[in-house]
Write a structure and sequence with these properties.
This protein is an alpha/beta fold. It has two domains: 191 residues, 3-Layer(aba) Sandwich (Rossmann fold), CATH 3.40.50.2000; 168 residues, Rossmann fold (3-Layer(aba) Sandwich). It is 40% helix and 20% strand. It contains 14 helices and 16 strands. The strands form three sheets. Strands 3-4-2-1-7-8-9-10 form an eight-stranded mixed β-sheet, sandwiched between helices. It has a six-stranded parallel β-sheet with strand order 13-12-11-14-15-16, with helices on both faces. Strands 5-6 form a two-stranded antiparallel sheet. The chain starts with a strand and ends with a helix.
């Protein structure tokens, strides 16, 4: 099978979407399929055997980490050269429109997937009034596709309720070999806590964007005597967060990758995730695979992963003290925390990238057959 993949974000950017795409491409290629990726130009020509067609792009004013690539005729030239069996558009917004256009022009089956809950993001960037319009635009784009995949059952339901048709679930995946409890280390704990090895260590990993609501961790940190917070990642909201957490025992670590990131998860006492805009929350699965108990908002796709009191704790984001209570309960009971960590690891072990990619390939074949 020859798959043309259009995505608004790809390497060298680091986020949950790119992580999923990296593993998906690797496993598709490993299973004998051929992939051609159309993405904002990041200097790559290939990845894991797949062709990468970088399209000239410019940084978004509100989000410089994200680059916008505009459709151009050279995309059609590369597509005709590659001769795809199917086109897959990931979060179609700008570049993805080229994928939709060429699927129609070349009479190819089209599949779309939804990973970023953009309508909810608008509220955090001062454009909440445009939410209704954005849903209409999303519906217009996604309803061109033979199938629209979401990464959680909650998102399947929400897209369906907003008029997006032919929705289905693309199962979660996590690298349980890289992320493992055995990678806990005193060296990493020393680094994250800035030398306070015995202090309760809270961890956040992810993009530092306004939509992640990282400020909501501040009262949790203040309520736990002696606690330290390590924030791993970067993004456009970093300066505001540094100012917000000034004077608190918070360490902005920056990006970590591979074994270092896995060790950070495994070395912390609790992973705190306050975001209410997640379609899935891949970092939650990574933390769970590393045996780090999670405390997360009961919102979006998160309840698909976290079962409250069994493999983590959920809190009500509408109740200001709910996250504090959940985190205190987790830290107070060492035996329960160990059980939760073991259950979290067991949950993560159910979801391999290989299985998730085989499911996707079956969806591709289904769309091709129907077409």
């Amino acid at each position: 099978m020859r798959v043309a993949l259009f995505t608004e974000t790809f390497l060298p950017k680091v986020d949950g979407i790119v992580t999923r795409l990296r593993h998906t491409i690797e496993h598709l290629q490993r299973d004998g399929h051929q992939v051609c990726v159309f993405c904002p130009d990041g200097g790559l020509k290939s990845h894991q055997g797949a062709i990468v067609c970088g399209v000239p792009a410019f940084p978004l004013p509100l989000y410089p980490e994200l680059k916008m690539a505009l459709p151009r005729p050279s995309i059609g030239t590369e597509l005709h050269k590659f001769r795809p069996d199917i086109i897959h558009v990931v979060n179609p917004a700008v570049l993805g429109l080229a994928g939709i256009f060429y699927a129609k022009q070349m009479n190819l089956p089209l599949l779309a997937s939804y990973h970023t809950h953009l309508p909810k993001y608008l509220q955090h960037y001062g454009f909440g009034a445009l939410e209704g319009l954005l849903w209409e635009l999303l519906k217009l784009g996604h309803n061109q596709a033979a199938l629209n995949l979401c990464t959680s059952s909650v998102m399947v339901q929400e897209l369906s309720e907003h008029g997006i048709e032919r929705t289905d679930l693309w199962q979660r995946g996590v690298d349980t070999e890289t992320y493992h409890p055995s990678l806990a280390s005193s060296e990493m704990r020393d680094r994250l806590s800035q030398g306070h090895l015995q202090a309760p260590l809270l961890l956040y990993v992810g993009r530092l964007g306004a939509e992640k609501e990282i400020e909501r961790i501040k009262p949790v940190l203040a309520a736990i005597p002696g606690a330290r917070l390590a924030i791993v990642g970067d993004g456009p909201h970093r300066e505001q967060l540094v100012a917000e957490f000034a004077g608190t025992p918070t360490h902005f670590v920056g990006y970590l990758e591979g074994k270092n990131l896995a060790s950070a998860y495994a070395s912390a006492d609790a992973f705190i995730f306050p975001s209410r805009t997640e379609t899935l929350g891949l970092v939650l699965l990574e933390a769970m695979a590393a045996g780090c108990p999670v405390v997360a908002a009961r919102s979006g796709g998160i309840p698909d992963i976290v079962t409250d009191g069994e493999n983590g704790f959920l809190f009500d984001p509408a109740q200001p003290d709910s996250a504090i209570v959940a985190t205190k309960n987790l830290l107070a009971a060492a035996e329960q925390r160990q059980t939760i960590a073991q259950n979290a690891r067991a949950e993560a072990e159910r979801w391999s990238w290989s299985a998730a990619t085989k499911q996707l390939a079956n969806y591709y074949q289904q769309a091709i057959d129907q077409h």
